[in-house]
Design goal:
This protein is 42% helix and 25% strand. β6, α3 and β7 form a beta-alpha-beta unit. It has four helices and seven strands; from the N terminus they run βββαββαβαβα. The protein is of the alpha/beta class and 115 residues long. α1 packs parallel to α2. The protein has one domain: Transcription Regulator spoIIAA (2-Layer Sandwich). The longest helix has 16 residues.
């Protein structure tokens, strides 16, 4: 069995999804959507996505992040992202996704956003 590309932790009532692989591409998207569906179904509403290990994301992943943000907002929750590596940050800004997502430099800052 392949190693998971993410770890999930619960910190002060916030679900932290930390990506463990450097590259996240289309193959991981369906699993990510499934995992989020399960978390939302279990009443989880607030998420921090930790990209500290990620150096590449595909356009399909970016589109999926927008989809997951929408699903989270539908249950009156929120999803923020943090710890973007330089190339991932550049792609997010070039695609104007920085206008849609709350982005924090560190996981701690992202967690503080939820009080």
């Amino acid at each position: 069995m392949d190693k998971k590309f993410y770890d999930i932790d619960e910190i002060i009532g916030v679900t932290v999804v930390a990506f463990t692989w450097e590259n996240i591409a289309w193959k991981e998207v369906e699993e990510l959507k499934k995992v989020f569906g399960e978390l939302l179904g279990n009443g989880k509403k607030n998420f921090v996505l930790d990209f500290s290990n990620v150096t590449y994301v595909s356009s399909v992943v970016l589109a999926s992040l927008v989809y997951l943000l929408k699903k989270t907002k539908e249950v009156d929750g929120n999803m923020v992202i943090c710890a973007l590596q330089k190339k991932v940050d550049e792609v997010i800004r070039l695609t104007d996704l920085d206008k849609i997502f709350e982005i924090y430099k560190t996981k701690q800052e992202a967690l503080e956003r939820f009080g």
